[in-house]
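--- STAGE predict ---
source: upstream dedup step, 1 unique chain passed
mode: sequence only
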Amino acid sequence: MDKYVSSPEESELFPNLLNLSNQEEIDKAEFEGFLLAELSLTEELTSQTKFNIKYIKRIHKLSLGHLYSFAGKFRTVNMSKGGFLFPAAKFISQNMDNFEKEILLNLPAKYESDQALIEDIAKVHGEFLFIHPFREGNGRTARVLANLMVRKYGIKALNFEKITENVFPEYVIAVQSVADRNYKPMERIIKLIF
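--- STAGE serialize ---
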């Protein structure tokens, strides 16, 4: 998978707080950060946990705060991947506020069925990835959030390993479908990994 592009002259490596100079070291530090953050957040998860903007920023900060000064902060650069342009940086705060008001704050206290939970995870996961609010780590933040959503309701983590190379193009289309508020493609992906 390609790195996101914000400007053609940008170097491959983000400046980091640990002064790591090769991608392998950075990848390891990022992986460890997300792993530790997910473990920590899972331990403190309760039925009262509210998934909102503040919580999402906390996931990102816990995961990447040891590595990047921009951890937990919305991006200030425009980004694209594979020719797909994510919403402009100047609209991130408004998009995230709308995401919180329209979706996050309307998540129920409990679910009556797995299907209802799958539908809400699809909305949250798809909208978050479509907005792409952070400079780096959006996909991993979205996966941690989805896992916390299922764990909150007593279900083990989702099996993201099922999103193989063959399934990944469908996953990308599912994210892009969110532009039209079409969550059905993402529901199929979430059902696959549930």
